[in-house]
Amino acid sequence: MGASLHQWLIETPEGASMNLLTRIIIALILLIVGKYLIKLFMRIFRRASGIKSQVGIDVSVKTFVAAALNLVLNIVLVVFFLLILGVDMTSMATVISSATVAIGLSLQDLISAVASGVVLLRSKHFRTGDYIRIDSSNGTCEGTVSSVGLIASTLETFENQHVVIPNNQVLQGVVTNYSTNPTRRLTVDIDVDYSTDVKQCKKVMQDVIASDKRILKNPTPIVAVYNLAEFSITMRAICYTKRVDYWDVFYDIREKMLLAYRANDISIPFKRIVIENYQGSDAQHAAIKLVEKDNNSK
Q1: Cα–Cα nearest to 66, from 50, 85, 55
Q2: Chain-centre distance of CA 117, in angstroms?
């Protein structure tokens, strides 16, 4: 195609010639018109494919395809530009091959990120709009997926922070997708004093769970003694809620259980530290008790 275009635009009848200035003018015109046509084509493509919408993995796929298509079109435009200038593409291909090897060695991480982006889009581990957590060797990040790009993926965290993660780190890490299933399990642990009536604690927690319509009846909520700690008994409540209600229930259920415990005179233990200030003999010392709030009780 490039050779045919070169022959149609540049090659002159036998015995005629075209000066360098004319070649440069034609090449520049092609470059300017080509850039404009590429921008126009990409604008039409984005509008037709609905990339600006925020629904599903299709957004990521379309964004990825648009970026790749834009890159390919610009490379083709540069090749046509060089052909019109009369550059020998045979020798140019050798130079480009050598440069590609050198660039590939220096940009291994970048190439790995691009390849990982293709794998992510094909595997569909998560969709745009999903709430995920990524555990990698560099740490943990949790948030809502806003896009999956050619090189990196972006998350919007719960603290409204914009986080960019290279795709190769996403692929090599452990991805937990909280949006795949329609329901989520909610676990609440509360410590009580050893002198507390366990049956009463269970009834109070069960009443709080039953009063919240956002908590699902199936699977059946569970309330039980989870652990016998050194200074307290740990009561655990396990229930399920719809994914969209999870965070609201997460905070509300704890507040309701705390108020219910107080209303029923159930003691939540806290740590007490005793500091003794010795004056005179050991038999005549005065003890000063300082209380510090904590989750445990001695």
Answers
A1: 50
A2: 13
